């Protein structure tokens, strides 16, 4: 089994087919979208392929170390940046093809007008252990 991260971009990914921003959806459309995501996760829990997933708030900040004994440096919030991650899901699947299949399903969550979004999802495999080198 291999773990994959499915990233949902609110901004920064290629445009979706149903490209109406969520802040223009009706409350019923938002509810239907969230329900689709929950049902999808529940189905994957049943197959043992769901690891975790979360929606993310649009506000955030950058943080870095400023050196030993000094407080961290922060910069932000950056809600206006061009790339904004809306949420993520971690799956644990047998093959890369299965990860792509599930990402395709997830991209069809309903959006405005109850129509599938067909949004682009970023699919990233977890970094595995480096190969053992023997001489």
Automatic annotation (TrEMBL):
<dbReference type="Pfam" id="PF03795">
    <property type="entry name" value="YCII"/>
</dbReference>
<feature type="domain" description="YCII-related">
    <location>
        <begin position="15"/>
        <end position="107"/>
    </location>
</feature>
<dbReference type="InterPro" id="IPR011008">
    <property type="entry name" value="Dimeric_a/b-barrel"/>
</dbReference>
<dbReference type="InterPro" id="IPR005545">
    <property type="entry name" value="YCII"/>
</dbReference>
<comment type="similarity">
    <text>Belongs to the YciI family.</text>
</comment>
<protein>
    <submittedName>
        <fullName>Uncharacterized conserved protein</fullName>
    </submittedName>
</protein>
């Amino acid at each position: 089994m291999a773990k994959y991260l499915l990233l949902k971009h609110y901004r920064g990914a290629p445009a979706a087919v149903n490209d109406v921003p969520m802040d223009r959806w009706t409350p019923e459309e938002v509810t239907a979208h969230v329900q689709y995501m929950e049902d999808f996760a529940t189905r994957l829990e049943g197959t043992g392929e769901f690891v975790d997933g979360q929606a993310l708030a649009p506000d955030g900040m950058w943080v870095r170390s400023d050196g030993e004994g000094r407080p961290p440096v922060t910069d932000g919030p950056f809600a206006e940046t061009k790339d904004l991650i809306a949420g993520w899901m971690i799956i644990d699947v047998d093959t890369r093809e299965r990860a792509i299949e599930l990402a395709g399903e997830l991209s069809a969550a309903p959006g405005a007008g109850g129509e599938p979004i067909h949004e682009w999802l970023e699919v990233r495999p977890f970094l595995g252990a480096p190969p053992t080198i023997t001489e």
